[in-house]
Amino acid sequence: MSHLTRTGGSRSATGATGPGFGIPGYAHPLIAPVEWAELTRPGTPLHWAVLNVADGPGSMPDPHCLEAAGRLRNAGVRVLGHLDLAYGARSFGEIVSEAHDFHDWYRVDGFFLDRCPAQASYLPDVRLTAATLETIAHGGHLVLGHGTHPYPGYAEIADQLVTFRGPWTDYRWSQVAEWTADHPPERFVHLVHGVPRSHLNEAMRIARWQGAGTIFFTDRSDHGERIGRSSPFAALPGYWDEIVSQIGPGVSE
Q1: What letter does residue 229 receive in the DSSP assignment?
Q2: Chain centroid to CA 176
Q3: Given pLDDT bands bounded at 50, 70 and 90, which one contains residue 154?
């Protein structure tokens, strides 16, 4: 791994004064009520949480998701609508239509563009999508979920980039792209699953060294062992209280 010295400006992309959590999307509130309730706990250093109703906003407003999103927003937590770009395979019209539904039904504060392409050739298309989404959300928060280091130009069109998403076995040996040193840590997100409790401190050090200001670490795996919870990020990590205490105290936005 590399340790980079930051040379960029001091502007915070999250509006927070320090490191915190980005929640990539819990299971439906009926399946994961404890998880959704934990996000409103006072003092949790939470930068944002992603709302994913049914691989997007669904076909109609979901009253349970509407209630959960409302509680988060009342607690000062930024809620982002989940939009799947399918690495550039989905049409502009589909994405914009879903974005309008998210904003009209759930009053989201921005969008999380999952499976965002990372190549330079897709940059013009993603730039157009990002500008349109900013208009829909009235300047809301935009996170590009590449899951890897993209072409550097993507940093110019979004508030944050997910530059790592994957298992601990890859994260512990990962390298950071040198161009990220031109930006503050608040611009970058790391989402890591399968992190053992015994390696939590090491994972935190890697995030600091690589300059990621928003993180989500979990000991859950991606083996799909839990019915209805195929995503390792769908449930709270077993060491949630411990990791909150390490990053906190903080105040939700």
Answers
A1: B
A2: 18
A3: very high
Comparing 251 with 120, which gets the higher pLDDT? 120
**Cα atoms in the 13 Å half-sphere on the side-chain side of 186:** 18
pLDDT at 196: 96
Non-local CB neighbours of 67 within 8 Å, separated by 6+ positions: 29
Region of residue 219 (left: phi > 0; alpha: psi -120 to 50; beta: else): alpha
What is the rounded distance in angstroms from the CA atom of residue 250 to the CA atom of residue 188? 19
What's the pLDDT score for residue 43? 86
Contact 177, 145 (CB under 8 A): no
The architecture (CATH level 2) of 20-247 comes to Alpha-Beta Barrel (3.20)
Evaluate whether 52 touches 82 at the Cβ level (below 8 Å): yes
How many Å apart are CA 36 and CA 218, to the nearest integer? 16
Cα separation, 169 vs 193, in Å, equals 9
Distance linking the first and last C-alpha atoms of the chain: 31
Type and span of the H or E element at 105: helix 92-106
Residue boundaries of the structural domains of the chain: 20-247
Quote the CA–CA distance of 190 and 210 in Å, as a whole number: 10
- Could you give the CA distance from residue 160 to residue 162 in angstroms, rounded to a whole number? 7
Residue 64 to residues 61, 71, 72, 184, 238, Cα–Cα distance (Å) = 9, 11, 13, 37, 25
More confidently predicted of 3 and 230: 230
What tokens appear for 53 in the block?
A: 């109703």
Rounded Cα–Cα distance for residues 178 and 175 (Å)? 9
| pLDDT score, position 105 | 97
